[in-house]
Design goal:
omega peptidase activity; 3-stranded antiparallel beta sheet; Acylaminoacyl-peptidase; elongated; hydrolase; mainly beta
Length: about 55
C-alpha cells in the first residue's frame, strides 16, 4: 500500500453542505474538490433530491 501524498487529495471528491428541509422530505448537497491553486475547495455542483422516504426507527 502506498503512502498518502499531498497531491492525492486532488483526486478525491467530497460530499458537503448536506441539508434537509424541516419535514425531512427533501435533501440538498454539494460535491466539492480541492483547489490547490487557490488553497481552498471548489463546489463542482449542488443538487437536491425530492421526496426522500424516512427510515423507520
Amino acid at each position: 500500500m502506498e503512502n498518502l501524498k499531498l497531491d492525492s487529495f486532488l483526486e478525491y471528491k467530497f460530499l458537503s453542505n448536506l441539508d434537509f428541509n424541516p419535514d425531512g422530505s427533501n435533501l440538498a448537497f454539494s460535491i466539492s474538490e480541492a483547489d490547490l491553486e487557490n488553497n481552498s475547495y471548489k463546489i463542482l455542483f449542488t443538487a437536491w433530491i425530492p421526496k426522500i422516504k424516512k427510515l423507520k426507527n
